[in-house]
């Protein structure tokens, strides 16, 4: 329950990111709604409070970088970028259309504010580590943030990157794992058991913290800790795939869903109701 959150503006931003991302996908007839919804709260913390950026100069050298390694969650990132002033809201209506600047997967050439093209799972974290190493070499004060999917962890490359991150002691980097328990074709536990994620990450000598990934207060606090010497390098976000709107949250197969603007309208009303009630996750006390 976050009714007493000190970060009401971040909760509002997270709700707006959810709403805009849903309309963005609805305009294209649907999209990767499950994994987009589960990162809206961390995106709110990053764009609303943490990251250094200038939306008028997306290539500003001293900006912080974000690599969304689970690149299929593009619409949530586009919503956050539009709400942060990187481009017009009207762009959100062009998702995946011919000539669009917003393809469904993140593309650094087309979209202002996107630091790395992603979609081939596993690769983003490696590039993020390279960026962090290069920035440190240049004595830059910029930081690198990256968001991984829990299904994405099945790519062996991710663990090579963790090894590099640990060995290089890249303190200018924060890695989030969106632990929404599902991948494309079902629950991780059933497809390929991930075992104890926190212990696995710690096995590399990396400090790791698990927080409620839908609670902006917890995500903010852990992120601020990660910015300090000795803080957690990896933050596991305990989330739910599709979190925030019932139609996505309750569907068994919610990786990619077809839905309409009317569905988005109903979801918008629900997201606003949850916002007023101080919750994101569906709770028994609520409905
Ligand atoms: C290398 C690679 N293999 C397969 C895919 C197809 N694919 C796209 S999303 C996805 C599931 C990813 O699951 P997860 O990382 O948990 O994402 P989330 O549930 O957060 O959407 C898969 C297998 C891909 N994009 N890249």
Structure summarized in a few sentences:
The protein is α/β, with parallel strands linked by helices. The protein has 11 helices and 9 strands. The two termini are 14 Å apart.
Can you put this structure into words, describing what you see?
- With 287 residues, the protein is an alpha/beta fold.
- The chain has a single domain, classed as Rossmann fold (3-Layer(aba) Sandwich), CATH 3.40.50.970.
- It has 11 helices and 9 strands.
- It has helices at 8-27, 33-37, 40-50, 74-83, 123-137, 156-168, 188-191, 197-202, 216-226, 246-250, 261-277, and strands spanning 30-31, 65-68, 144-149, 173-179, 182-183, 186-187, 208-212, 234-238, 257-258.
- The strands form 3 sheets. It has a 5-stranded parallel β-sheet with strand order 2-3-4-8-7, sandwiched between helices.
- Helix 1 (8-27) packs across helix 3 (40-50), helix 1 packs across helix 4 (74-83) and helix 5 (123-137) packs parallel to helix 6 (156-168).
- Thiamine diphosphate binds at residues 32, 34-35, 38, 70, 72, 119-122, 149-152, 178, 180, 182-184, 241, 255.
